[in-house]
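hey so u asked for the seq, here:
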Amino acid sequence: MILEKIKGEVGKAIVGMDEIVELMTIALIANGHVLLEGVPGIAKTTLSKNFANTLGLKFSRIQMTPDLLPADILGHTFYDMRSGQFKLRKGPIFANVVLVDEINRASPKTQSALLEAMEERQVTIDGLPLKLPEPFIVLATRNPVEMEGVYELPTAQIDRFMMKIDMTYLPEESEKAMLRRKSLGQFTEAQQVVLGSEIAGAKREALAVRVSDAIIDYIYEIVKETRLDERVILGASPRAGEHLLYASKVKAYLEGRSYVIPDDVKWLAVPVIAHRIVVKPEYEVEGVDGKGIVRDVLERVEVPTE
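ran it, structure tokens below
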């Protein structure tokens, strides 16, 4: 199975992140993008690079800074003196797995350069539309601690991330195991274990997973309830429901089922929906966040029994 092969190979380079690897695999197969949030030194970059290695995909890293320009990401045309013609120099966005490090350090203008790439899977350079390679996934990182010299991510951009994954400190035993393996030099870089044809096949098969009307209603009710909650300014968008649907189909596929069950939806609801919810300031200061609201919604919405 694709997921087990990826988990096993990534485990050669990193410990204690099986659930995060599963979510990233789901996002890749479902044509989504992932926002990784965590403090520095928690292996966000290492995880992203080794995840790409297991798939044999082209990996690129963009270190976002305030002076970065859209052309630094997308690429640009230049005049070649030798040939006497204009040529295209492609930017780092032309990769299968693109790690956008510290995405909130770049200006809104530069961040907006990612919008077309994430939604349309193409970019426009000097009026020329160019398709991005397949598969294509953006893994963006954000440091939740440093607030100086950073820009707030536009709501429209946040909504384009299928999932937001919070990377926290490892459990005690996992961190000790990491230190032991570091001491013994037992970590190695992940190698390719999945073929491109397997990824393409997984996408086709996941799309064929059956979703009953009861599950469709369940997803809609969850999304609708986030909009009706008195604690929010902005609830989940229709795109959130769409992403939850596609992610649930992939989750079912990876578990060897040809149909989605409510547990698929419940397991994915927080990482898919929570980051899109804007909480009213008076509730935010009391510690209310999108995660808590989604969990409350899951308690309120009736689970289909069919």
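The two ends are 28 Å apart (CA to CA). The chain is about 45% helix and 15% strand.
lmk if thats what u needed
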